[in-house]
Design brief:
about 375 residues, about 5% strand, 5-stranded parallel sheet, single chain, 16 helices, mainly alpha
Length: about 375
Amino acid sequence: MAADKFKGQEKHVDFYHPTRMAASNDRQIDYLFVGSSRVAAAVEPQAFADVVEERTGTRPMAIDQGKGYSTLVEHYFHLRNLAADYPGSLEGTTVMIESPMGLAQTNTWDGEWAKESWPELLGPPMRVGDLPQYVLSSTDTKETKVAAIGSALFMSTRYWDALTNKFEGALNRAFGAGKGATETKDEDCAEADMSTDGGVRCDDEGIDITRNIVRFETRQAEELEEPVDDWNRTAAASIVELVRAEGGEVVFFDVPMGSYGIIRFGSEALLQSTEVFTEYRQANGLRYVRTAGFACNDDDFPDFAHLRHSRAEEYSRTLAESFLNGGDAGYPDGRIHVCDLDPTVVEEVGGAELPTNAADAYNQ
């Protein structure tokens, strides 16, 4: 088959391509943003770099590796491979990990490694030596493991992607992810005021799908989430260990969320995990940067999940200022979230506004 038939497929799945390109050209990677599509939508690396340059006189390289449906297990493998393939590439790098309302992703090595809706994201960064642990330790479904391992075993993921495209199209459409999903046009994004970075969909169908997913996850938070009792079991802790060993540093940062996200992260299960995470951060001298001064509400989240594109530059500049200023102070009035909480959404999902004393888990 002609090679150009698969052009672009490998970059679509191996989403660390921008970072690997920078490392292969011996570029210093100063800031690397890690997380989900919330990071892809909210962080404008050039706006962040603008503030750093204004304050320090030196322009840094900042790369946004936020990706929809990604897990910190996948990010760990990408960072591990980057360090192995390009020695010294993480030296002096600040890896900024998404931690909305004070909680990073809770993926553990004996839990979920890949999202069921997009297992191919796990395949490319895994190496053969990772497969036994994946099979024996991960709680991923059999179908997820088959897809991820199949992707990992192919030297070029673009061939696996092409072979499975027909079969996975319906699944991806259902979850609004990647291959097989309705193509989003630039005019759709302009009208919706949304970014397509990191797999965010901004066509009408995609927005509706995301809204339904957000509603479901918020209502079922207590059933869907399992508290983490030992943060050292998490992929996030492994990233910290890896990056520090390579001469870099890890900083956790808040990302804005609408009312549904605020309520979900205020569930009892996630509050328990947040307390464990806070203790881990403090014990290991890790910063958590908040973005006090960035005002937002539900109108800033067209699909209930992702910050609208026109606010991303302001948020990114505020994040940079907070980072450079220390940025670890709590939000005003004891709040544990940066955006306003809409009481009508609280009533809709049958929840209650977060108690003030819950701030103790975050504002430390």
